[in-house]
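Quick start: what a row looks like.
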Amino acid sequence: MNPMRNKLKITYLFESTTLWGGNKVGLEQAEALSEAGHNVTILSKDAGPTWYDLRLPVTQVSDFDYVTIPESDIIVGTYWPTVKAAYESGKGIPVHLCQGYEGDYKELLHLKSVIDEVYSYKIPKLTVSPHLDKFLIERFQAETYFIGQMLNKDIFYPARNMNENKPESLSVWKKVINTFNALFNKKQQHSAPFKVLVVGPFEVIFKNIPTALRGISIAKEKMKTPIKLTRVSQFPLSAEEEAIIKPDAYHFHLSHQSMGEIYRNADLFISTSEEAEGFGLPALEAMGCGIPTILSNISSYTSFDDLLDYALFIDPSDTEALAEAISKLFHEHALRDRLARRGLSVAENFTKEKVVNKLENAFEKILHRPTLKGRQSNKGIELR
């Protein structure tokens, strides 16, 4: 923690700590703030995650109210029902951690009016992607603070050979060997399976997994090499998913720590998420592991970096374009290598230190926010 900052009492509220990316983000923030010297409490309606090696205790409560929520400087609601609880508790300044607008989730359309009521609360909102700032300001005239995302570099790192320094000059003999190896590898790539990874629950509509699977199925029919599909989800394989394409490997409810090896064992990561995607952490995790990616051209994915050269971007509804992109990356090894290295450089910008600094800046501004009156632009409040 910056020695000039005050030590804050911060409480995070979780409806549950089950395996969801949004929960992981909130838990990582709580841990990082605790490491920075703040007094952080985690309250949840369950006993804590079994999939995440959490280094903070979880206090299980039956409900969030004036009795169960402790006196705090900041109370962070991590999902719209917990935002409501933080707002109504009166035990500290309520803050809304927004990782995507739930009112756009087709599964929650029947709750849209209640969700919109919560989003209309005149309380600060922390956002993980710049496009959320713009949306929240335009739609709800919200006070927003962009904090970004962090990537755990102890888990999500590239294979060792990606980090090896290449000599500037090689002997003639080494050049001959490298040329031979390149030709050999080119032959091998046409016979070895092309390992494609798709992460996310088939059952969540905006993840758009069916489109990814259909595109892979088309590519599999057109290409002369076998494609090995690996799927990762929170849930067991469903008959509906298997009817589109049967994965060669299927993993569900994996621990957070085991995901790094899953990514590093892939040749290509694919996500065709729709616009409702708040961020899309698996895409960033794959990039952090040095894996080339095909991503949908949605606001969250195109906000990772100003230059859109770190992935092949496609329309999330275009299965033919996805199949063509898969074929292109299979045949163009140099393109795969360039995307892998460019994606890795983008992922390097998503650090814990940056997020903690922005969180601390946000909380300091929120605690003294009357001085911010009239300073917000349509890009949110800029934190340095």
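That is the whole record. The domain at 160-347 is CATH 3.40.50.2000 (Rossmann fold). The two ends are 15 Å apart (CA to CA).
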